[in-house]
């Protein structure tokens, strides 16, 4: 019978995994995806090559883990809002999206993909399929639930989700790709979310919906 790892060993493994992901993200950004070896990542993370290879056998697998980590949403701690109050639900989703986009490293992750995707198109596919799309799908499902509940009127939940997230990211996130000092304050970010919510309510809120 194989002994199960202790809580201590699981904690140490998780800490090493975090160190590897942080080191890889920095090296990918500084030296490029192609210019960074797993050996260099192991050295920067302060782990042995055996430890790194035990968790990530290829750079592609490591990059997938980076993307998944940055876009991860704990469904138990942050479930989709219950349908019935479109305004409150959109406000919650909008704030969560801001938290995702402004977390340390997210802009760096996008810069890695943008810089390397002409030579490594798989990086873009990984970012899209494992990162952005799962989150986008959760928002689309929420809007469909509001539509079914009668609090929203929309024919295309996919387009509505695109519009809502786009309004927020176009202010909160994308300027960071070109403007190194783009750091809007909390009140400006809150206002961007509020205005996106009001626009969605005006366009898609059912009659009688607060704010519609």
Overview of this protein structure:
The protein is elongated, with a radius of gyration of 20 Å. The chain is built from 9 helices and no strands. Helix 1 (7-31) crosses helix 2 (38-45). By secondary structure, the chain is mainly α. The N and C termini lie far apart (62 Å). The model has no long low-confidence stretch (mean pLDDT 89). The protein has helices at 7-31, 38-45, 49-55, 59-70, 86-102, 106-116, 121-149, 157-172, 186-204.
User: N-to-C terminal Cα separation, in Å?
Assistant: 62 Å
Question: In one word, what is the shape?
Answer: elongated
- Strand fraction equals under 5%
Number of helices: 9
Task: State the helical fraction.
Answer: 55-70%
SSE ordering: HHHHHHHHH
What do the pLDDT scores average to?
89
Q: Give the tally of β-strands.
A: 0
Uncertain regions: pLDDT < 50 for 5+ in a row?
none
Structural class: mainly alpha
> What is the CA-based Rg, rounded?
20 Å
Main beta-sheet annotation: none
Domain HTH tetR-type: 14-74
Protein name: TetR/AcrR family transcriptional regulator
DNA-binding region: 37-56
Keywords: DNA-binding
Name some characteristics of this structure:
212 residues; mainly alpha; 9 helices
């Amino acid at each position: 019978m194989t002994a199960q790892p202790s809580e201590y060993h699981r904690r140490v493994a998780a800490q090493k995994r975090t160190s590897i992901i942080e080191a890889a993200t920095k090296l990918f950004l500084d030296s490029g995806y192609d210019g960074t070896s797993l050996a260099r990542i192991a050295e920067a993370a302060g782990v042995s090559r055996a430890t790194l290879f035990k968790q990530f056998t290829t750079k592609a697998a490591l990059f997938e883990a980076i993307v998944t980590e940055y876009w991860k949403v704990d469904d138990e701690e942050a479930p989709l809002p219950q349908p019935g109050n479109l305004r409150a639900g959109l406000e919650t989703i909008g704030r969560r999206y801001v938290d995702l986009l402004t977390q340390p490293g997210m802009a760096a992750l996008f810069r890695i993909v943008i810089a390397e995707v002409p030579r490594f198109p798989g990086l873009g596919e990984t970012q899209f399929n494992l990162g952005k799309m799962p989150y986008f799908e959760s928002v689309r499902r929420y809007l469909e639930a509001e539509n079914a509940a009668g609090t929203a009127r929309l024919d295309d939940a996919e387009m509505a989700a695109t519009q809502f997230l786009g309004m927020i990211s176009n202010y909160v996130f994308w300027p960071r790709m070109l403007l190194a000092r783009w750091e809007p304050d909390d009140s400006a970010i809150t206002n961007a979310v509020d205005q996106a919510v009001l626009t969605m309510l005006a366009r898609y809120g059912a009659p009688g919906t607060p704010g519609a």
